[in-house]
Amino acid sequence: KATVSVLYCRAMGEAGGNNEFYGRVGVKLVCEGSEETLKLIFLKRTASREDLVSEVQRRYGDAMITFEEDGDRIEVDTAEVVGHFLSSIPEGAKGKLFISKPSQAHNEVESLRAVIEEQKAVITTQNEKIARFESSSREPACEEPRSIPEQEVLYVMQLENKIRELQKNDARLRNQVRELQSEDEPQEDKTVSKEDFMPLEAELLRTFAVHETAVHCCAFSLRGDLLCAGGKSGFLTISNTETGKTLHKVNAHTGFLRSKKKGVLLSCDFAENGDFVATASNDRTARIWRVSDGSRRAILRKHSDKVYCCRFSPGGFKLATTSMDNTALIWDVHTGKLAHTLKQHSMSVFTCTFNTEGNILATGGDDRAVKLWDWRDNAATASLEGQVTTIWSVGFSQNGTQLITGSMGGEIKVWDLRKQEVLKSLMLEKGVHSAQFIRNDSQYVTCGRDNAISIRGTNDHSLHSYTVANNYGVQHADYHEGTDRLLTCSVDSTVKLWRLPLQRECSFVDE
């Protein structure tokens, strides 16, 4: 295992589209257990992101790579690492990459794949021998057919038996590959891949290119006529979904007090009455803004670490925030004062949501447990255990009897809240940033590191729609029931508005 530190990086990242770096990118390699330092990569001012990707892949191939900023460590594959890493580093700051050797199971998989290729070559050779033998044995139609010597017949039979043995061995090796691959990834009820289906695609209606850097959050207003969005730049934008016009662009989170570090907007939400928008940031604050003129109503300062999520209660009278300080807080929107403190998580809390009645709050995070809170009494009424990796998303059904969760490891679970047990579970190939019920709970929509928007049936996980949204991962999505539309945002600095395909009776189900 090795630590790779960026010595100097002023990354332009996604802005402007040319993906060039302002300044040089120097990287050093520090081996664990040794003080030896080796220069790994040194790119020129004009080097592009693709140049750095190629260099990492050339040196490390399919090695698992993680990146770290302020103690946060997230595993990504080689193709994603550069985009995520650069978008996480503020201009002029330092960051770290951790590059690990592939697991033993991964190496065994690669060895078995090589053996399979050899077996295929042998089978092809044997088939060619049979074809040549049969061709040489054919006689002109006008002549009497000759009898084939017994020795030649036996030779053909031996070849055919050998081919059958090789084919059986090939199948056995493929099964071993699948078993070894399952050791590297958590295994759930079934694994779904987009190649197994021929689903419908969503229609892109509009792209909002107001932001200059990565966009981490977006949300609809209750009527669906407005959207809010924010991200790495710290700016909050409020736009009209029909005209595409930007109504307000506010420098919402300027950064830490007595520090030059820029604030990053991590979450945003509209109040149901349409009067306010809330934002949450790594500057340890949440803020409330007036939609009418973009002015600030309140700064909420009680968290001691990054605030990752903010959600209004139905009616908009209360605001819930969650943080890396392991707490969820409930605020009075009109006074801006702290009303309730919820403490039962043992690690960072990344997501939260209210049920439709507003009396129950669900939270999830690094401790891999979903807490259900009767927040008025500051009490957790239930803890849903069983998620294998960090929980990034929670969402109630409209009737409040079910909950959907999505995680860093690609797990999707649908929970029965009355029995407090898992109804359905599914394992995707990459992490899920957002999961929520749609269309009167008959389906759910997910997005994440697979760069796609997926719609599946709630009861059987049947895939209804699969749309590749971009090449950088979908950071967040928000669904509007009244218009059947979806908002997505991405590291590529865009917010996109989609019309979802019509629901059909027949879907493709993975067996």
Q: Could you characterize what this model shows?
A:
The protein is an alpha+beta fold. Helices cover 18% and strands 40% of the residues. The chain contains four helices and 34 strands. A six-stranded antiparallel sheet has the order 3-2-1-6-4-5, with helices on one face. The chain has a four-stranded antiparallel sheet with strand order 7-34-33-32, with no helix packed on it. A hairpin with a 2-residue loop joins strand 4 and strand 5. The longest helix is centred in the first third of the chain and has 35 residues. The two termini are 38 Å apart.
Strand order of the largest sheet: 3-2-1-6-4-5
Number of helices: 4
Q: The biggest beta sheet, please?
A: 6 strands, antiparallel
Helix content: 10-25%
> What does the average pLDDT come to?
76
Q: What's the β-strand tally?
A: 34
Unreliable runs? 1-45, 63-81, 98-103, 139-148, 186-197, 505-511
Instruction: Report the structural category.
Output: alpha+beta
Task: Please tell me how large the radius of gyration is.
Answer: 27 Å
Give the percentage of residues in beta strands: 35-45%
* Shape, principal axes of CA atoms: elongated
Kindly report how far apart the N and C termini lie.
Answer: 38 Å
